[in-house]
């Protein structure tokens, strides 16, 4: 049998239909789909917590929940969104699916390890879910000691085990990507011919492999402290709770770049494709990804300006944090320069790319406010911080994720999504996002602290705006969910290359066959040889 | 040279590519292991600089003879592991089996001695917890931190050895079934890297934990 009931060629989706064939698959594309389904569920769970938070914040009083419950809600929102959605999101779904296709390989270097990392992820997710079901955790996603290690009466241990386990999934995925990118490239595909998406994932993987073990061992120490009362983080026993913060942020600041770098990789692909122009400054964008990964390891102290860190250490961390702005700005300038005199097409993925450009820039620039020691003393632990990192993680990372999902949806499923509706949804997401989070900058600047369920009545108008925005944003996320599912059955059949895009993944059929390519492609030219090259324009 | 007609997994073009990928993957894994233990070493260093006297006093409670013997045992197990890799490259099945079993036995001896040491610590109330007691009460709190790290670091090391046991047993099974040959030596080679890594961790742990204040 070489065709299916719909008369389409053999591909990775119709290769087998049983549940068993999915749960034991070694195909990177199918594993990408397994991740897609799981993280989508986690995303809506994390979103449900956000809804409850925003509803409570409609009024200055405690109406819906009391303080204890509120603490658990923001903790679970953060943990689910960060560990179960944002960190795996683009790498585990799009990276898994696309990296072998983009480099002309039949699979990742270690397919079994890839499947194992999904199972590890699910086991970790189950532990986190258990901690939710049994009553939740109230430490904040940051697990700060000594509250988490000694005093909290919530299910810290379960959640910590969950985070510990999902960490290994992240390490294994990163390891697999690094080896694959080093060793599995098609003939002729030199490093500087790689798509920038691959460069971004390479940088991300370095952080995953080198950063994640630190939080793993830190969580082990918190667990031991909780069980045996070891004293390492307990000031009563001579321990130093701030040491925990150092160890925690040594991973968790770079983890922000685990979330944003893959998104930047997506944006590079989208902007060059829909400008019909070779990306401007290829090498600068490639190396800026690596620079962000390296600098990212040296800036953790900016989370601790008010945690008894010495002023000199603070100054060094402040300067290093400013440095991250340089590679980030290089990317934004180069994307903008790519648009210049390009033949810009306003398709849905490109709308998300535009959204990313604006929102990431705001998120990045407000990061500079917070990297400034003097300003940070005023803004620390206020809604300004909340707004800042949501502009990066939601405005940046999720915009890129959605843009990428639209761009490669035809490749993944062989179906097109409805164009007009998806453009409308992109607009709804953009409007909803800004209405949710821009007021939070103002709230924070005026001094509203984060992590409280009650607030001064003077802050109510902005909070109502934020909650209204969150409702719109929620609708904006539900619409794509609906039409993506719809398109699986009713969407127009996609061609191999619906966007006229460059890149090896578009040279194979949609959806690709199990082995990706009929024969191993040979690469003879640079990436992004779109009609409008810089040379022609010069 | 030892990858002439090794079986190649479908995602690889040839045995050379497979061998390079597996080796790089193993080194990356060890890199993350270094960071993993690195968190413990950092914590050790921070508290040692804060409480040097308590560290020295607590260190004297450790049994340096048993620790020294264990160091020798473990280094010898690295030698037998290296010999197993060597035999695997030569494709000598009986030799591989012998060296692997020797490695397993030496590793078992290490853990046995470690268990004796642990038991003594429990008896002397040196396990951090509600029953912790230290001869010099003035140093009790920081000594407790020292022992927390002693148990965390050696415990994590022992856990890695137990995992190594599992892998060695698997290798012995593979070898017995004739699945390890000169062309298929990679599993033994990679296990060797892992075993040596675990050995090296101990080479750092031994002086840092046992030999404080014994110099000069």
What does this protein structure show overall?
The complex is a heterodimer of chains A (538) and B (216). In chain A, helix 2 runs antiparallel to helix 3 and helix 14 runs antiparallel to helix 15. Chain A is an all-alpha fold. Chain A contains 17 helices and no strands. Chain A has a single domain, classed as Cytochrome c oxidase-like, subunit I domain (Cytochrome C Oxidase, Chain A), CATH 1.20.210. Chain A is globular, with a radius of gyration of 23 Å. The longest helix of chain A is centred in the middle third of the chain and has 35 residues, at 241-275. Mean pLDDT of chain A is 95; it is low at 1-6. Helix content of chain A is 67%, strand content 0%. Chain B is mainly α. Chain B has one domain: Four Helix Bundle (Hemerythrin (Met), subunit A) (Up-down Bundle), CATH 1.20.120. Chain B contains 6 helices and no strands. Chain B has helices at 15-50, 52-59, 64-90, 93-123, 140-176, 186-210. In chain B, helix 1 packs across helix 2, helix 1 runs parallel beside helix 6 and helix 4 runs antiparallel to helix 5 (140-176). The longest helix of chain B has 37 residues, at 140-176. The radius of gyration of chain B is 20 Å and the shape is elongated. The termini of chain B are far apart. The mean pLDDT of chain B is 93. Chains A and B meet through helix 7 and helix 8 of A and helix 1 and helix 5 of B.
